[in-house]
Structure of Polar amino acid transport system substrate-binding protein:
Amino acid sequence: MRFFLLVSAAVLWAASLFAEPRHVEVYTYHTHAPFIIDEERGLTYDLAGYLTEKSNGVYDFTVLTMTRARVDKILEEKVEGIIPWVSPDWFSDETLLWTRGELMLDGNTVISSMDLKLDYSGPESVKGLRFGGVRGHHYVDIDPLVEAGEIRRFDNENHLNNFRMIEKGRIDFTIAPLAASRYLIKSNNMEETLYLSGELHSSYYRRIIVSGGDEELRRFLDTVLARIDSDPKWQLYVNRYK
């Protein structure tokens, strides 16, 4: 009997060595820099590779880009996978399974021209100005001003286009994630033309949703996130886009 148990344990151990890693989709609607640079580069691809490596062969994470509407559909249908870079403030479904740990602290900043140098201090500080938004996005404190006719809104497809509209004098300000703004301004040589407000419009922690409610996967992610800020390799990825 003892011999049988030893043989069985050895067989199971050997099988685990050759087991195929479980495929996990990384669904993201954050398709702007620094999260997505192109089809193979960006912080989301770095995250997928990092998580795959940390799992020691248990998981294989693959990135799929899509719209926010498609992500909402995936969550509604409980399709298995993860959605990174998100905050509970942006989702009304209280049944979603979130990581307890965070990926990063981020915030939305107000960007204007060097001539205007707008320091945001609340809705009153932007009344009468022209605002550039991203089509389909909602903006706390800004949307009511647009509805009241106290500011005019002009939409573009992405943050970079709004930055260029500021440079051309067609809008006065826009709002974009701080991490994305720093990367886009630096990589497009806009440091001398664009100004970042000294005060953030809002701040939030970016976390991960585990779609499909896989508790085991959530535990793995939380184990990684508990050490991510002190991991030199992860910091190397993050600093690449600053």
In short: Strands lie at 22-28, 59-65, 81-86, 104-113, 130-134, 152-156, 173-177, 194-196, 202-211. The chain has two domains: 23-105+204-239, 106-202. Residues 106-202 form a domain with the D-Maltodextrin-Binding Protein; domain 2 fold (CATH 3.40.190.10). The chain has eight helices and nine strands.
